[in-house]
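Form 12-C: Joint structure prediction
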Amino acid sequence: MTPASQSSERSGERMIRTPEGVVFALALAGPVSRCLAWLLDLACLSVLFKLGTLASNVLGLLHQDFSQAVSILLLFALTVGYAIGLEWFWNGQTLGKRLLGLRVMDVRGLRLQPSQVVIRNLLRAVDSLPLFYLVGGVFCLVTRYAQRLGDLAANTIVVRSAQASEPHIERVFEENRYNSLRHHPHLAARLRQQVTPAEADAALQSLLRRDALAPEARVVLFGTLSAHFKRKVAFPEEALEGISDEQYVRDVADLIYRK
Amino acid sequence: MSYLKVNRGMIIDLQKFITAERPYWQELDALLIRQERDPYRRVGFDDIRRLHYLYQRASSDLAKINTFSAERAMHRYLESLVGRAYAFIYGARQKAVRFRPLAFLLRTFPATFRRHFRPFALSLTIMALGALFGGGAILFDPEAKAVLMPFEHLQMDPAERVAREEGAGGQDHLQGAQGRFSAFLMTHNTRVSIFVLALGMTWGIGTVLLLFSNGVMLGAVAADYLLAGQHAFLFGWLLPHGATEIPSILIAGQAGLLLAGALLGAASERPMRERLRAVGPDVVTLISGVAVMLVWAGLVEAFFSQYHAPVIPYSVKIAFGAVELCLLALFLGYAGRSSSDRRQPERNRHRGSYRS
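Section 2 - Result
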Protein backbone atom coordinates (compact mmCIF):
# COMPACT_ATOMS: atom_id res chain seq x y z
CA MET A 1 0.00 0.00 0.00
CA THR A 2 1.41 3.33 -0.89
CA PRO A 3 1.47 6.20 1.56
CA ALA A 4 -0.78 9.18 1.23
CA SER A 5 0.09 11.92 -1.10
CA GLN A 6 -0.63 15.57 -0.85
CA SER A 7 -3.61 17.09 -2.55
CA SER A 8 -4.51 20.72 -3.22
CA GLU A 9 -4.51 22.50 0.13
CA ARG A 10 -6.11 25.52 1.68
CA SER A 11 -4.26 27.58 4.24
CA GLY A 12 -4.48 26.07 7.73
CA GLU A 13 -5.17 22.59 6.42
CA ARG A 14 -3.17 19.54 5.54
CA MET A 15 -4.95 17.57 2.87
CA ILE A 16 -4.28 13.85 2.77
CA ARG A 17 -5.09 11.68 -0.21
CA THR A 18 -5.39 8.07 0.87
CA PRO A 19 -4.31 5.19 -1.37
CA GLU A 20 -8.05 4.60 -1.92
CA GLY A 21 -8.14 8.01 -3.62
CA VAL A 22 -10.21 9.69 -0.90
CA VAL A 23 -9.15 13.14 0.27
CA PHE A 24 -9.59 14.37 3.84
CA ALA A 25 -8.34 17.45 5.64
CA LEU A 26 -6.48 17.84 8.92
CA ALA A 27 -7.01 21.25 10.51
CA LEU A 28 -3.61 22.64 11.54
CA ALA A 29 -3.19 24.25 14.94
CA GLY A 30 -2.01 27.85 14.83
CA PRO A 31 0.80 29.40 16.91
CA VAL A 32 -1.65 30.97 19.40
CA SER A 33 -3.41 27.74 20.37
CA ARG A 34 -0.05 25.97 20.56
CA CYS A 35 1.30 28.74 22.78
CA LEU A 36 -1.71 28.40 25.10
CA ALA A 37 -1.19 24.64 25.27
CA TRP A 38 2.47 25.25 26.13
CA LEU A 39 1.47 27.65 28.94
CA LEU A 40 -0.87 25.00 30.35
CA ASP A 41 1.93 22.44 30.18
CA LEU A 42 4.24 24.90 31.91
CA ALA A 43 1.71 25.32 34.71
CA CYS A 44 1.37 21.55 34.96
CA LEU A 45 5.16 21.16 35.07
CA SER A 46 5.42 23.74 37.85
CA VAL A 47 2.90 21.81 39.93
CA LEU A 48 4.71 18.52 39.29
CA PHE A 49 8.04 20.07 40.19
CA LYS A 50 6.58 21.59 43.37
CA LEU A 51 5.32 18.14 44.37
CA GLY A 52 8.70 16.62 43.52
CA THR A 53 10.51 19.24 45.60
CA LEU A 54 8.23 18.52 48.56
CA ALA A 55 9.00 14.81 48.24
CA SER A 56 12.74 15.46 47.99
CA ASN A 57 12.53 17.76 51.05
CA VAL A 58 11.11 14.85 53.00
CA LEU A 59 14.02 12.79 51.68
CA GLY A 60 16.32 15.60 52.86
CA LEU A 61 15.45 14.73 56.45
CA LEU A 62 17.34 11.49 55.91
CA HIS A 63 20.15 12.69 53.61
CA GLN A 64 20.58 16.31 52.50
CA ASP A 65 23.00 15.73 49.60
CA PHE A 66 20.96 12.85 48.19
CA SER A 67 17.75 14.86 48.31
CA GLN A 68 19.35 17.78 46.45
CA ALA A 69 20.70 15.42 43.80
CA VAL A 70 17.23 13.90 43.39
CA SER A 71 15.74 17.37 43.10
CA ILE A 72 18.17 18.36 40.30
CA LEU A 73 17.60 15.09 38.43
CA LEU A 74 13.84 15.38 38.85
CA LEU A 75 13.76 18.89 37.41
CA PHE A 76 15.78 17.71 34.43
CA ALA A 77 13.69 14.58 33.91
CA LEU A 78 10.49 16.62 34.05
CA THR A 79 11.62 19.36 31.68
CA VAL A 80 13.00 16.91 29.11
CA GLY A 81 10.75 13.91 29.68
CA TYR A 82 7.31 15.45 30.32
CA ALA A 83 6.38 16.13 26.71
CA ILE A 84 8.21 13.07 25.37
CA GLY A 85 6.47 10.73 27.79
CA LEU A 86 2.99 12.16 27.41
CA GLU A 87 3.09 12.55 23.64
CA TRP A 88 4.16 8.95 23.33
CA PHE A 89 1.68 7.41 25.74
CA TRP A 90 -1.22 9.75 24.94
CA ASN A 91 -0.93 9.42 21.19
CA GLY A 92 0.58 12.84 20.45
CA GLN A 93 -0.98 14.81 23.29
CA THR A 94 0.36 16.49 26.41
CA LEU A 95 -2.04 17.70 29.05
CA GLY A 96 -2.13 21.21 27.53
CA LYS A 97 -2.72 19.84 24.04
CA ARG A 98 -5.42 17.51 25.32
CA LEU A 99 -7.27 20.33 27.05
CA LEU A 100 -7.12 22.48 23.93
CA GLY A 101 -7.97 19.63 21.54
CA LEU A 102 -4.60 19.56 19.79
CA ARG A 103 -2.62 16.51 18.72
CA VAL A 104 0.81 15.87 17.22
CA MET A 105 0.68 13.68 14.12
CA ASP A 106 3.01 12.46 11.46
CA VAL A 107 2.97 14.90 8.53
CA ARG A 108 1.42 12.12 6.38
CA GLY A 109 -1.52 11.83 8.77
CA LEU A 110 -0.15 8.65 10.35
CA ARG A 111 0.56 7.71 13.95
CA LEU A 112 3.77 8.94 15.58
CA GLN A 113 6.90 6.83 15.82
CA PRO A 114 8.94 7.06 19.07
CA SER A 115 11.90 8.73 17.35
CA GLN A 116 9.60 11.48 16.04
CA VAL A 117 8.36 12.25 19.53
CA VAL A 118 11.90 12.40 20.92
CA ILE A 119 13.34 14.56 18.12
CA ARG A 120 10.55 17.15 18.08
CA ASN A 121 10.90 17.58 21.84
CA LEU A 122 14.70 17.65 22.00
CA LEU A 123 14.71 20.35 19.34
CA ARG A 124 12.80 22.63 21.69
CA ALA A 125 16.33 23.61 22.76
CA VAL A 126 16.63 25.56 19.49
CA ASP A 127 12.98 26.47 19.01
CA SER A 128 12.86 28.19 22.38
CA LEU A 129 15.73 30.53 21.45
CA PRO A 130 16.34 33.31 22.28
CA LEU A 131 13.29 33.63 24.56
CA PHE A 132 9.69 32.37 24.69
CA TYR A 133 9.92 30.13 21.62
CA LEU A 134 10.66 33.02 19.28
CA VAL A 135 12.49 30.86 16.73
CA GLY A 136 9.79 28.18 16.86
CA GLY A 137 7.03 30.80 16.62
CA VAL A 138 8.57 32.44 13.56
CA PHE A 139 8.96 29.05 11.85
CA CYS A 140 5.33 28.26 12.71
CA LEU A 141 4.24 31.42 10.95
CA VAL A 142 6.33 31.02 7.83
CA THR A 143 6.17 27.29 7.14
CA ARG A 144 3.42 25.73 5.05
CA TYR A 145 2.13 23.41 7.76
CA ALA A 146 2.83 25.70 10.76
CA GLN A 147 5.82 23.62 11.83
CA ARG A 148 8.52 24.70 14.26
CA LEU A 149 12.07 23.43 13.71
CA GLY A 150 11.42 20.36 15.85
CA ASP A 151 8.40 19.49 13.72
CA LEU A 152 10.39 19.94 10.52
CA ALA A 153 13.15 17.64 11.79
CA ALA A 154 10.70 15.01 13.04
CA ASN A 155 8.22 15.31 10.13
CA THR A 156 5.36 16.10 12.45
CA ILE A 157 2.45 18.54 12.45
CA VAL A 158 0.14 19.72 15.22
CA VAL A 159 -3.53 19.41 14.33
CA ARG A 160 -6.82 20.29 15.96
CA SER A 161 -8.10 16.90 16.99
CA ALA A 162 -11.66 17.58 18.13
CA GLN A 163 -13.69 14.65 16.80
CA ALA A 164 -16.76 15.66 14.84
CA SER A 165 -19.95 14.29 16.27
CA GLU A 166 -22.31 12.12 14.30
CA PRO A 167 -24.73 14.16 12.17
CA HIS A 168 -28.33 14.15 13.35
CA ILE A 169 -30.70 15.37 10.68
CA GLU A 170 -33.74 13.43 11.94
CA ARG A 171 -35.07 16.51 13.69
CA VAL A 172 -35.36 18.26 10.31
CA PHE A 173 -36.94 15.34 8.51
CA GLU A 174 -39.67 13.89 10.64
CA GLU A 175 -41.14 10.62 9.40
CA ASN A 176 -44.73 10.75 8.00
CA ARG A 177 -44.66 14.55 7.97
CA TYR A 178 -47.08 16.09 5.45
CA ASN A 179 -45.34 17.95 2.64
CA SER A 180 -47.75 19.73 0.26
CA LEU A 181 -45.00 20.18 -2.35
CA ARG A 182 -44.91 16.41 -2.93
CA HIS A 183 -48.27 16.67 -4.71
CA HIS A 184 -46.36 18.24 -7.63
CA PRO A 185 -43.75 15.63 -8.53
CA HIS A 186 -42.72 17.30 -11.81
CA LEU A 187 -41.99 20.59 -9.97
CA ALA A 188 -40.21 18.70 -7.19
CA ALA A 189 -38.00 17.03 -9.80
CA ARG A 190 -37.26 20.41 -11.37
CA LEU A 191 -36.37 21.84 -7.96
CA ARG A 192 -33.93 18.99 -7.30
CA GLN A 193 -32.36 19.69 -10.67
CA GLN A 194 -32.11 23.44 -10.13
CA VAL A 195 -30.81 23.53 -6.56
CA THR A 196 -27.04 23.27 -6.10
CA PRO A 197 -25.51 21.26 -3.23
CA ALA A 198 -24.36 24.51 -1.62
CA GLU A 199 -27.90 25.96 -1.69
CA ALA A 200 -29.33 22.73 -0.32
CA ASP A 201 -26.74 22.77 2.45
CA ALA A 202 -27.62 26.38 3.31
CA ALA A 203 -31.25 25.34 3.79
CA LEU A 204 -30.30 22.28 5.84
CA GLN A 205 -27.85 24.16 8.06
CA SER A 206 -30.40 26.91 8.70
CA LEU A 207 -32.95 24.31 9.80
CA LEU A 208 -30.43 22.46 11.97
CA ARG A 209 -29.41 25.67 13.72
CA ARG A 210 -32.78 27.39 13.93
CA ASP A 211 -32.88 27.19 17.73
CA ALA A 212 -29.58 29.04 18.00
CA LEU A 213 -30.99 32.04 16.09
CA ALA A 214 -32.77 35.01 17.59
CA PRO A 215 -36.48 35.10 16.53
CA GLU A 216 -36.01 38.23 14.37
CA ALA A 217 -32.92 36.82 12.66
CA ARG A 218 -34.73 33.54 12.08
CA VAL A 219 -37.63 35.32 10.34
CA VAL A 220 -35.26 37.30 8.11
CA LEU A 221 -33.12 34.23 7.25
CA PHE A 222 -36.00 31.94 6.34
CA GLY A 223 -37.72 34.79 4.45
CA THR A 224 -34.60 35.24 2.32
CA LEU A 225 -34.15 31.52 1.73
CA SER A 226 -37.83 31.01 0.94
CA ALA A 227 -37.80 33.86 -1.60
CA HIS A 228 -34.67 32.40 -3.16
CA PHE A 229 -36.15 28.92 -3.60
CA LYS A 230 -39.48 30.34 -4.83
CA ARG A 231 -37.59 32.12 -7.60
CA LYS A 232 -36.02 28.81 -8.66
CA VAL A 233 -39.31 26.91 -9.10
CA ALA A 234 -42.78 28.39 -8.74
CA PHE A 235 -45.15 25.96 -7.00
CA PRO A 236 -48.89 26.64 -7.40
CA GLU A 237 -50.60 28.86 -4.81
CA GLU A 238 -52.60 25.99 -3.28
CA ALA A 239 -49.41 24.14 -2.41
CA LEU A 240 -48.11 27.16 -0.50
CA GLU A 241 -51.30 28.11 1.25
CA GLY A 242 -50.90 28.67 4.98
CA ILE A 243 -47.19 27.72 5.00
CA SER A 244 -44.68 29.98 6.74
CA ASP A 245 -41.32 30.78 5.16
CA GLU A 246 -39.58 28.38 7.55
CA GLN A 247 -42.07 25.65 6.75
CA TYR A 248 -41.49 26.21 3.04
CA VAL A 249 -37.73 25.89 3.45
CA ARG A 250 -38.25 22.72 5.50
CA ASP A 251 -40.44 21.29 2.71
CA VAL A 252 -37.83 22.20 0.11
CA ALA A 253 -35.04 20.50 2.13
CA ASP A 254 -37.32 17.48 2.57
CA LEU A 255 -37.84 17.29 -1.20
CA ILE A 256 -34.13 17.58 -1.89
CA TYR A 257 -32.71 15.27 0.74
CA ARG A 258 -35.48 12.65 0.88
CA LYS A 259 -36.47 11.26 -2.47
CA MET B 1 -24.78 33.56 -17.12
CA SER B 2 -23.95 33.03 -13.44
CA TYR B 3 -26.46 30.18 -13.58
CA LEU B 4 -24.05 28.26 -15.81
CA LYS B 5 -21.10 28.83 -13.52
CA VAL B 6 -22.75 27.17 -10.56
CA ASN B 7 -21.21 23.82 -9.69
CA ARG B 8 -24.14 21.52 -10.19
CA GLY B 9 -23.83 18.20 -8.37
CA MET B 10 -26.47 15.64 -7.61
CA ILE B 11 -27.81 15.53 -4.09
CA ILE B 12 -28.23 12.12 -2.61
CA ASP B 13 -31.09 11.06 -0.39
CA LEU B 14 -29.31 12.08 2.77
CA GLN B 15 -31.59 10.52 5.31
CA LYS B 16 -31.70 7.19 3.52
CA PHE B 17 -27.94 7.33 3.14
CA ILE B 18 -27.38 8.09 6.83
CA THR B 19 -29.84 5.43 7.95
CA ALA B 20 -28.13 2.82 5.79
CA GLU B 21 -24.56 3.72 6.67
CA ARG B 22 -24.77 4.82 10.30
CA PRO B 23 -24.41 1.30 11.80
CA TYR B 24 -21.12 0.84 9.90
CA TRP B 25 -19.80 4.26 11.02
CA GLN B 26 -20.72 3.52 14.61
CA GLU B 27 -19.00 0.14 14.44
CA LEU B 28 -15.85 1.71 12.99
CA ASP B 29 -15.93 4.45 15.62
CA ALA B 30 -16.25 1.88 18.42
CA LEU B 31 -13.33 -0.18 17.05
CA LEU B 32 -11.16 2.92 16.79
CA ILE B 33 -12.04 4.13 20.29
CA ARG B 34 -11.11 0.70 21.67
CA GLN B 35 -7.77 0.85 19.87
CA GLU B 36 -7.06 4.49 20.81
CA ARG B 37 -7.69 3.76 24.48
CA ASP B 38 -5.16 0.94 24.45
CA PRO B 39 -2.68 1.39 21.57
CA TYR B 40 -0.68 -1.68 22.67
CA ARG B 41 -3.66 -4.02 22.43
CA ARG B 42 -3.11 -6.89 20.02
CA VAL B 43 -5.68 -6.82 17.26
CA GLY B 44 -6.86 -10.17 15.93
CA PHE B 45 -6.90 -11.00 12.22
CA ASP B 46 -10.71 -10.91 12.01
CA ASP B 47 -10.80 -7.52 13.72
CA ILE B 48 -8.22 -6.14 11.30
CA ARG B 49 -10.15 -7.44 8.32
CA ARG B 50 -13.37 -5.95 9.67
CA LEU B 51 -11.64 -2.64 10.43
CA HIS B 52 -10.22 -2.50 6.93
CA TYR B 53 -13.64 -3.21 5.43
CA LEU B 54 -15.29 -0.52 7.57
CA TYR B 55 -12.54 1.96 6.70
CA GLN B 56 -13.02 1.34 2.99
CA ARG B 57 -16.76 1.69 3.36
CA ALA B 58 -16.43 4.99 5.26
CA SER B 59 -13.91 6.19 2.63
CA SER B 60 -16.39 5.39 -0.09
CA ASP B 61 -19.13 7.27 1.83
CA LEU B 62 -16.84 10.28 2.16
CA ALA B 63 -16.16 10.17 -1.57
CA LYS B 64 -19.94 10.07 -2.21
CA ILE B 65 -20.54 13.02 0.10
CA ASN B 66 -17.70 14.93 -1.60
CA THR B 67 -19.26 14.31 -5.00
CA PHE B 68 -22.99 14.49 -4.40
CA SER B 69 -23.73 16.53 -1.34
CA ALA B 70 -22.29 19.46 0.57
CA GLU B 71 -23.70 18.68 4.00
CA ARG B 72 -20.91 20.04 6.20
CA ALA B 73 -21.55 18.30 9.51
CA MET B 74 -21.59 14.94 7.81
CA HIS B 75 -18.51 15.83 5.80
CA ARG B 76 -16.61 16.75 8.97
CA TYR B 77 -17.79 13.62 10.73
CA LEU B 78 -16.74 11.30 7.92
CA GLU B 79 -13.40 13.11 7.46
CA SER B 80 -12.67 12.66 11.14
CA LEU B 81 -13.64 8.97 11.02
CA VAL B 82 -11.65 8.22 7.85
CA GLY B 83 -8.63 10.20 9.15
CA ARG B 84 -8.53 8.21 12.39
CA ALA B 85 -8.94 4.87 10.62
CA TYR B 86 -6.33 5.83 8.03
CA ALA B 87 -3.81 6.71 10.76
CA PHE B 88 -4.44 3.36 12.41
CA ILE B 89 -4.33 1.19 9.28
CA TYR B 90 -1.43 2.81 7.44
CA GLY B 91 0.47 4.03 10.48
CA ALA B 92 0.85 0.65 12.17
CA ARG B 93 4.19 0.65 13.89
CA GLN B 94 6.68 -1.25 11.81
CA LYS B 95 7.58 -3.77 14.46
CA ALA B 96 5.90 -4.19 17.80
CA VAL B 97 9.18 -5.05 19.49
CA ARG B 98 9.66 -4.56 23.21
CA PHE B 99 12.35 -2.02 24.07
CA ARG B 100 15.34 -3.85 25.51
CA PRO B 101 17.63 -1.31 27.21
CA LEU B 102 20.62 -3.65 27.47
CA ALA B 103 20.47 -4.73 23.83
CA PHE B 104 19.99 -1.11 22.84
CA LEU B 105 23.03 0.01 24.78
CA LEU B 106 25.32 -2.90 23.94
CA ARG B 107 24.38 -3.44 20.31
CA THR B 108 22.23 -0.76 18.70
CA PHE B 109 24.15 2.24 20.03
CA PRO B 110 27.69 1.18 19.02
CA ALA B 111 26.41 -0.16 15.67
CA THR B 112 24.74 3.19 14.96
CA PHE B 113 27.91 5.01 15.96
CA ARG B 114 29.95 2.96 13.49
CA ARG B 115 27.38 3.32 10.72
CA HIS B 116 27.77 7.10 10.85
CA PHE B 117 31.48 7.28 11.50
CA ARG B 118 32.10 10.13 9.03
CA PRO B 119 30.07 12.73 10.96
CA PHE B 120 31.93 11.57 14.10
CA ALA B 121 35.29 12.04 12.38
CA LEU B 122 34.15 15.49 11.28
CA SER B 123 33.01 16.30 14.82
CA LEU B 124 36.41 15.18 16.17
CA THR B 125 38.26 17.22 13.56
CA ILE B 126 36.30 20.38 14.38
CA MET B 127 36.96 20.00 18.11
CA ALA B 128 40.64 19.21 17.46
CA LEU B 129 40.96 22.34 15.32
CA GLY B 130 39.36 24.32 18.14
CA ALA B 131 41.81 22.80 20.62
CA LEU B 132 44.74 23.70 18.37
CA PHE B 133 43.44 27.23 18.10
CA GLY B 134 42.91 27.52 21.88
CA GLY B 135 46.32 26.01 22.63
CA GLY B 136 48.01 28.28 20.08
CA ALA B 137 46.29 31.35 21.49
CA ILE B 138 47.57 30.61 25.02
CA LEU B 139 51.03 29.82 23.64
CA PHE B 140 51.35 33.07 21.72
CA ASP B 141 49.19 35.34 23.83
CA PRO B 142 48.85 34.33 27.50
CA GLU B 143 46.59 37.36 28.01
CA ALA B 144 43.91 35.54 26.00
CA LYS B 145 43.35 33.27 29.03
CA ALA B 146 40.74 35.63 30.51
CA VAL B 147 38.68 35.43 27.33
CA LEU B 148 39.16 31.75 26.49
CA MET B 149 38.59 30.31 29.96
CA PRO B 150 35.80 32.27 31.61
CA PHE B 151 35.84 30.23 34.85
CA GLU B 152 37.31 31.48 38.12
CA HIS B 153 39.19 28.31 39.03
CA LEU B 154 40.85 28.29 35.60
CA GLN B 155 41.98 31.90 35.81
CA MET B 156 44.60 31.35 38.51
CA ASP B 157 48.14 30.24 37.82
CA PRO B 158 48.19 26.43 37.27
CA ALA B 159 51.09 25.89 39.69
CA GLU B 160 49.26 27.89 42.34
CA ARG B 161 46.09 25.85 41.84
CA VAL B 162 47.96 22.53 41.97
CA ALA B 163 49.71 23.62 45.18
CA ARG B 164 46.35 24.60 46.69
CA GLU B 165 44.61 21.34 45.65
CA GLU B 166 47.49 19.18 46.86
CA GLY B 167 47.97 21.33 49.97
CA ALA B 168 44.39 20.66 50.97
CA GLY B 169 45.65 17.17 51.78
CA GLY B 170 42.86 14.97 52.99
CA GLN B 171 40.44 17.89 53.24
CA ASP B 172 37.41 17.20 51.07
CA HIS B 173 36.00 20.40 49.57
CA LEU B 174 33.08 18.44 48.14
CA GLN B 175 32.30 16.86 51.51
CA GLY B 176 28.61 16.09 51.63
CA ALA B 177 27.93 17.63 48.22
CA GLN B 178 29.18 14.98 45.78
CA GLY B 179 25.67 13.79 44.97
CA ARG B 180 24.42 17.27 44.15
CA PHE B 181 27.57 18.06 42.15
CA SER B 182 27.30 14.81 40.27
CA ALA B 183 23.61 15.40 39.43
CA PHE B 184 24.42 18.94 38.31
CA LEU B 185 27.19 17.67 35.99
CA MET B 186 24.99 14.95 34.49
CA THR B 187 22.12 17.29 33.73
CA HIS B 188 24.25 20.21 32.60
CA ASN B 189 26.34 18.11 30.22
CA THR B 190 23.27 16.35 28.86
CA ARG B 191 21.65 19.76 28.20
CA VAL B 192 24.78 20.89 26.35
CA SER B 193 24.76 17.67 24.31
CA ILE B 194 21.09 18.09 23.41
CA PHE B 195 21.88 21.65 22.36
CA VAL B 196 24.79 20.49 20.20
CA LEU B 197 22.43 18.00 18.54
CA ALA B 198 19.56 20.47 18.14
CA LEU B 199 21.80 23.06 16.52
CA GLY B 200 22.18 20.60 13.66
CA MET B 201 18.94 22.16 12.38
CA THR B 202 20.85 25.41 11.75
CA TRP B 203 22.38 23.58 8.76
CA GLY B 204 25.06 22.42 11.20
CA ILE B 205 26.48 25.89 11.74
CA GLY B 206 25.54 26.00 15.43
CA THR B 207 26.85 22.48 16.02
CA VAL B 208 30.18 23.34 14.38
CA LEU B 209 30.51 26.56 16.42
CA LEU B 210 29.74 24.82 19.69
CA LEU B 211 32.16 21.95 19.00
CA PHE B 212 34.85 24.42 17.98
CA SER B 213 34.35 26.61 21.08
CA ASN B 214 34.50 23.55 23.35
CA GLY B 215 37.71 22.57 21.60
CA VAL B 216 39.13 26.08 22.08
CA MET B 217 38.48 25.94 25.82
CA LEU B 218 39.91 22.44 26.14
CA GLY B 219 43.02 23.35 24.13
CA ALA B 220 43.55 26.55 26.13
CA VAL B 221 43.33 24.74 29.50
CA ALA B 222 45.63 21.97 28.31
CA ALA B 223 48.21 24.43 26.95
CA ASP B 224 48.07 26.52 30.13
CA TYR B 225 48.79 23.54 32.40
CA LEU B 226 51.33 21.93 30.05
CA LEU B 227 53.28 25.19 29.73
CA ALA B 228 53.33 25.42 33.52
CA GLY B 229 54.73 21.87 33.67
CA GLN B 230 51.65 20.44 35.43
CA HIS B 231 51.26 17.41 33.11
CA ALA B 232 50.44 14.91 35.83
CA PHE B 233 47.81 17.13 37.43
CA LEU B 234 46.23 17.96 34.06
CA PHE B 235 45.85 14.34 32.95
CA GLY B 236 44.95 13.13 36.42
CA TRP B 237 42.27 15.80 36.66
CA LEU B 238 40.76 15.60 33.15
CA LEU B 239 41.27 12.03 31.98
CA PRO B 240 39.03 10.07 34.40
CA HIS B 241 35.84 11.91 33.46
CA GLY B 242 37.03 13.46 30.18
CA ALA B 243 37.55 9.99 28.72
CA THR B 244 33.76 9.67 28.66
CA GLU B 245 32.62 13.28 28.69
CA ILE B 246 34.55 14.51 25.65
CA PRO B 247 33.55 11.55 23.44
CA SER B 248 29.96 12.18 24.56
CA ILE B 249 30.05 15.74 23.26
CA LEU B 250 31.68 14.46 20.08
CA ILE B 251 28.91 11.90 19.59
CA ALA B 252 26.30 14.61 20.23
CA GLY B 253 28.12 16.58 17.53
CA GLN B 254 27.97 13.50 15.31
CA ALA B 255 24.17 13.38 15.79
CA GLY B 256 23.89 17.12 15.07
CA LEU B 257 25.99 16.81 11.92
CA LEU B 258 23.94 13.79 10.84
CA LEU B 259 20.82 15.93 11.14
CA ALA B 260 22.54 18.77 9.28
CA GLY B 261 23.62 16.33 6.55
CA ALA B 262 20.03 15.20 6.08
CA LEU B 263 18.89 18.82 5.99
CA LEU B 264 21.47 19.83 3.42
CA GLY B 265 21.03 16.61 1.46
CA ALA B 266 24.47 16.51 -0.11
CA ALA B 267 24.77 13.64 -2.60
CA SER B 268 21.15 12.63 -2.18
CA GLU B 269 18.31 13.06 -4.59
CA ARG B 270 15.67 12.17 -2.03
CA PRO B 271 13.42 14.94 -0.72
CA MET B 272 14.44 16.61 2.54
CA ARG B 273 11.45 15.16 4.38
CA GLU B 274 12.51 11.62 3.47
CA ARG B 275 16.14 12.25 4.39
CA LEU B 276 15.18 13.59 7.82
CA ARG B 277 12.81 10.68 8.33
CA ALA B 278 15.60 8.23 7.53
CA VAL B 279 18.13 9.63 10.04
CA GLY B 280 15.62 10.26 12.85
CA PRO B 281 15.89 6.90 14.67
CA ASP B 282 19.71 6.97 14.48
CA VAL B 283 19.86 10.51 15.85
CA VAL B 284 17.73 9.41 18.81
CA THR B 285 19.89 6.33 19.35
CA LEU B 286 23.08 8.41 19.43
CA ILE B 287 21.75 11.03 21.86
CA SER B 288 20.32 8.33 24.14
CA GLY B 289 23.74 6.65 24.27
CA VAL B 290 25.31 10.03 25.05
CA ALA B 291 22.92 10.53 27.98
CA VAL B 292 23.97 7.18 29.48
CA MET B 293 27.67 8.00 29.00
CA LEU B 294 27.20 11.35 30.72
CA VAL B 295 25.65 9.71 33.78
CA TRP B 296 28.89 7.75 34.17
CA ALA B 297 31.03 10.84 33.49
CA GLY B 298 29.12 12.84 36.12
CA LEU B 299 29.64 10.15 38.77
CA VAL B 300 33.37 9.86 37.97
CA GLU B 301 33.90 13.63 37.98
CA ALA B 302 32.17 14.19 41.31
CA PHE B 303 33.43 11.13 43.17
CA PHE B 304 36.87 10.58 41.61
CA SER B 305 38.28 13.33 39.36
CA GLN B 306 38.09 16.09 41.97
CA TYR B 307 40.34 14.20 44.40
CA HIS B 308 44.00 14.77 43.68
CA ALA B 309 47.30 13.55 45.13
CA PRO B 310 47.98 12.72 47.84
CA VAL B 311 44.38 11.47 48.32
CA ILE B 312 44.45 9.57 45.01
CA PRO B 313 47.85 9.32 43.27
CA TYR B 314 47.96 10.80 39.78
CA SER B 315 49.23 7.53 38.36
CA VAL B 316 46.07 5.78 39.52
CA LYS B 317 43.83 8.49 38.07
CA ILE B 318 45.68 8.54 34.75
CA ALA B 319 45.66 4.75 34.50
CA PHE B 320 41.90 4.73 35.30
CA GLY B 321 41.21 7.32 32.58
CA ALA B 322 43.40 5.52 30.04
CA VAL B 323 41.68 2.20 30.68
CA GLU B 324 38.28 3.89 30.39
CA LEU B 325 39.24 5.46 27.07
CA CYS B 326 40.52 2.14 25.69
CA LEU B 327 37.39 0.31 26.83
CA LEU B 328 35.17 2.99 25.29
CA ALA B 329 37.07 2.80 22.00
CA LEU B 330 36.77 -1.01 21.98
CA PHE B 331 33.09 -0.78 22.89
CA LEU B 332 32.24 1.71 20.18
CA GLY B 333 34.42 -0.06 17.65
CA TYR B 334 33.44 -3.67 18.23
CA ALA B 335 30.38 -4.10 20.49
CA GLY B 336 27.53 -5.93 18.75
CA ARG B 337 29.56 -5.91 15.53
CA SER B 338 28.74 -9.36 14.18
CA SER B 339 24.99 -9.25 14.71
CA SER B 340 24.57 -5.65 13.55
CA ASP B 341 26.66 -6.28 10.45
CA ARG B 342 24.52 -9.26 9.53
CA ARG B 343 21.34 -7.26 9.94
CA GLN B 344 22.53 -4.05 8.35
CA PRO B 345 21.90 -4.69 4.65
CA GLU B 346 18.38 -5.93 5.33
CA ARG B 347 17.63 -3.01 7.61
CA ASN B 348 18.72 -0.50 5.01
CA ARG B 349 16.57 -2.13 2.38
CA HIS B 350 13.50 -1.78 4.57
CA ARG B 351 14.14 1.64 5.98
CA GLY B 352 15.90 3.27 3.05
CA SER B 353 18.43 4.49 5.60
CA TYR B 354 20.22 7.71 4.77
CA ARG B 355 23.91 6.83 4.81
CA SER B 356 26.30 9.53 5.88
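Section 3 - Comments
Chain A touches chain B through 70 residues (CB under 8 Å). Residues 4-160 of chain A form one domain.
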